[in-house]
Amino acid sequence: MPVTTGTRVRVFAPATVSNVGPGFDVLGFALHRPGDIVEAERSDSAGVELVEVTGDEGALPVDAQRNAAGISAADVIRRAGAAGGIRLWLRKGMPLSSGLGSSGASSAAGAVAANELLGRPLAIEDVVRSAMAGERAACGSAHADNVAPSILGGIVLIRCCDPLDLVRLPVPDGLFVAVVHPHCQVSTAEARNRLAQHLFALPDIVANMGNLGALVAALHQGNLGLLGRSIEDRLIEPARAGMIPSFAAVKRAALDAGALGCAASGSGPSVFAFADADDTAAGVARAMRAAFRVHAALDSDAWVGPISRDGAHLLP
Amino acid sequence: MPVTTGTRVRVFAPATVSNVGPGFDVLGFALHRPGDIVEAERSDSAGVELVEVTGDEGALPVDAQRNAAGISAADVIRRAGAAGGIRLWLRKGMPLSSGLGSSGASSAAGAVAANELLGRPLAIEDVVRSAMAGERAACGSAHADNVAPSILGGIVLIRCCDPLDLVRLPVPDGLFVAVVHPHCQVSTAEARNRLAQHLFALPDIVANMGNLGALVAALHQGNLGLLGRSIEDRLIEPARAGMIPSFAAVKRAALDAGALGCAASGSGPSVFAFADADDTAAGVARAMRAAFRVHAALDSDAWVGPISRDGAHLLP
User: Fold this and answer.
1) Residue ranges of chain B whose CB lies within 8 Å of a chain A CB
2) CA neighbours within 13 Å on the CB side: how many for A157?
3) Which of A150, A169, A188 is the last residue of a domain?
4) Looking at residue A6, what is its pLDDT?
5) A140 — phi, psi (to 5°)?
6) pTM of the model
């Protein structure tokens, strides 16, 4: 069902939590909010024009060829072999460098908006591939653990990036998430540099693989206790220790408040926790915010709710 | 239901495939055969007496305190706080140092036989713990990836060995296994030594975690194609390259004959492959045996069939 030139679409793409404890670079899930909005309309001139970026306090490039949303949209046009071009407006609705997949949400929104505007010429996995092109430009690597859950919703396992092989995992009923974003920044590049030179010992790898396998089993079996025990990360968290201010105290506060498990979101500084009830998750968020304030003198924002099963979608 | 002194039990414990591609030290599954048999009866003198070991060509210690079956049985008595002792006969039904969990099967049979003879005083997870004591004596490490599936049956994920945390994974219908044991030996100790000094790079770890997570998801979703793609091991197989004679040719032969995936069983030299039909699995076994013969001048044995859902059990 092609959309005629001149029609305008608005697409919301949610923030995402990647890594998810033991699942470095292979697991991610979608939040209901925050997220980015891309508005798009057809234009007669070829290529992508990024008309405006708002909500970023001027931090992001407005050049479509350097902006994740613009690059992703252009990749959709290229894959679809579409004639003409697209004009975009990017409304950032989430903090940058927060560990919540900000560039992933922009990439996802740009790719999905372009695909909707063109009448859905691409299968959903190709939309993910186009969004990965935006991630590559923004982050230096074409990883899928933010864009795939932002587009598909739910919890996604990335078996392999090249060739792309995605596995959608079930979202258990009764699972709630608390995410807290302290007002500081962790550079994804710096966080990755800490790992680039690092070599890992087999016992830690085995421990992480045990946790990752158990986490995937727990999601399928709806076993929230096992899910909580599996959130431990023996590989990346130690290598990045100290990058998130007072992380150990925040994690302790989350667990003391009843969290099933707690870990960094992406490369931080945001921290997420799982809980088995909405009000428990709200209490966990309060406890984590208090810990950031007391131990690191940091204000923060929090989001509480279930995992989003929907992912990116059209807004009215 | 305590068994009166003098009653005799016979327990069969099956061979197991551990590692299962990406799941080094965390995954294992049970075969229907081969396996070991332990016969046991109560005795009035304290402790465990190993009366006889057969089928091992004299290779194994007959001293109960140095034999995996005897040590496991003694650990059951200790955990149960039982009075008196046990006499054991160990019937080896499988090759040693084959990668098929030979010491694990003896440990499993010894522990299950002792627990049955005493009237099942221990919960099944404690029986696994007792069998791990036998593994520690035989292999130097108290790993559970052979004894747990040998006792529980099916496919078992070891999330953690200490404290022990086991996750039973579903066995998809229509999944068949071919296992080929070439007539040569790989020392588990030497295979582990190759890894002891090895440090691992993050891209290979990420690739393995993607495969491990996908393998667990594939078992739950009954997705045999995904299961096959997930069998690749980027961590251990390269580090141990060359330890199994002509392994690359054997694996190629398995895949060419229609195997879903193929990898070393344990630390080898046995090799296993998955297939989606019984006759395909039989053809895969023939192809692997031919490859061992042509490329490595090795005779071999093969076993073909579904994964055993039962694990160790009483024989009439």
Assistant:
1) 22-27, 157-160, 165, 167, 169, 195-196, 198-202, 205-218, 220-221, 226, 229-230, 235
2) 30
3) A169
4) 53
5) 90, -10
6) 0.96
Interface test with A, best of B145, B195, B209 (most A CBs within 10 A): B209
Give the pLDDT confidence of A163-174 residue by residue, as tens digits: 999 999 999 999
Please state, in angstroms and as integers, the Cα–Cα distance from residue A100 to each residue in A14, A179, A186, B297, following that order: 9, 9, 11, 56
Contacts of B25 in chain A (CB under 8 A): 206, 209-210
Please say if the pLDDT value at position A249 is more than 70: yes
Task: Find the CB nearest A23 among B199, B213, B235.
Answer: B213
Set of chain A residues whose Cβ sits within 8 Å of the Cβ of B201: 199-200
Q: What is the mean pLDDT of each run of 10 residues along chain B (316 residues)?
A: 65 98 97 97 93 92 93 97 94 94 97 97 98 92 94 98 97 97 83 82 95 98 98 91 92 98 95 98 98 98 97 96
Question: Alpha carbon A54 to chain centroid distance?
Answer: 20
Q: How many Cβ atoms sit within 10 Å of the Cβ of residue A247?
A: 24
Cβ-count burial A91-129 (b if 16+ within 10 Å, e if not) = bbbbbbbbbbbbbbbbbbbbbbbbbbbbeebbebebbbb
Q: Which residues of B touch A235 (CB under 8 A)?
A: 205
Chain A residues lying within 8 Å of B205, measured CB to CB: 24, 200, 205, 208, 235
| pLDDT score of A15 | 98
Say how many domains are in chain A.
Answer: 2
Domain termination residue (choose one: A152, A169, A186): A169
Query: What domain range is A109 assigned to?
Result: 8-169
Residue A39 lies in a domain: yes
Q: In this structure, are A294 and A195 located in the same domain?
A: yes
Mapping DSSP to helix (H, G, I), strand (E, B) and coil, where does residue A98 land?
Answer: coil
Q: What single DSSP character describes residue B308? A: P
* Phi/psi at B5 (5° precision): -55, 140
